[in-house]
């Protein structure tokens, strides 16, 4: 399923060009060089391998993310279609830039759901939980869960096809590398959280990392959270600093369930990212990109079904997570059109 792409890149074009719209060809305004990597072509989009160390697994996971050339191609397509929509042409973007690169919160969520204490706190020690990821992007969360071999099944979803193809290819790369002798298979599927006529697929644990790009997505994710909690699922949400949809998400969550009035994210220790990126994806003012990985506070929310009736529930082991996230993220990307 597809849905209209927000006009964030057009707004970013104004922001980074002194108020003047950019040409249809995007610029490489900001880059921090990452080590040379093997290049793959996914749907004619150049993508490179990136090794991401997951401290809770004590191993690196190989992901695929768009190269600078690949980002340029996706951004140019979005800008062109945005201009056509401004002229009255109703177009749908099937492959936007956001899901083609890694965001900081993906690593934070990956380490949270693969931490030994996470599943121990989830209840039945003899039950192997199932996992649903919303907006999988490059698929780090699903890949980490697979490598942990702590889940009975893993369903990774996105509303675009390119992220799912990136994940499918990366899963095979990790198998070929022999990173883990035993992994849980990953099933991928198209799913749009904003299409509320389609129910959430079943799972014991539902997670999402860095998908609060706009108000409408924030509202939709809040509705999905309540849907998951009401059916008995545990919900994990990760969000990097400054995401525009976060206030709308919290407001809608509290509106839907007044018992959650005092609920909020908890800041846990994460890492900045490095690598070349398109100027309309990540601006110079980004707080989560640096030449060398640095500490970054990432917002995390962990909700159990019991929170629907309790006054307040917070992440009990946030300090444990903060202490454990001492990894080095050498080749992450941060999409940051609004310096978020």
Which secondary structure elements does this structure contain, and how are they paired or packed?
Blueprint: H1 8-15, E1 30-31, E2 39-42, E3 45-54, E4 59-66, H2 68-86, H3 104-113, H4 116-120, E5 130-134, H5 140-148, E6 153-158, H6 161-177, E7 186-190, E8 205-209, H7 215-230, E9 234-239, H8 246-256, E10 266-271, E11 276-277, E12 295-303, H9 318-324
Parallel strand pairs: 5-6, 5-8, 6-7, 8-9
Antiparallel strand pairs: 1-11, 2-3, 3-4, 9-12, 10-12
Distance between the termini: 27 Å
SS class: alpha/beta
- What is the count of DSSP helices, taking H or I runs of 4+ residues? 9
Mean pLDDT: 80
Radius of gyration: 19 Å
Largest sheet: 7 strands, mixed
Order of helices and strands: HEEEEHHHEHEHEEHEHEEEH
Structure, described:
The chain is α/β, with parallel strands linked by helices and 340 residues long. A 7-stranded mixed sheet has the order 7-6-5-8-9-12-10, sandwiched between helices. The chain has a 3-stranded antiparallel sheet with strand order 2-3-4. A two-stranded antiparallel ribbon has the order 1-11. The two termini are 27 Å apart. The C terminus is likely disordered. 30% of the residues lie in helices and 20% in strands. Strand 5, helix 5 and strand 6 form a beta-alpha-beta unit. The protein contains 9 helices and 12 strands.
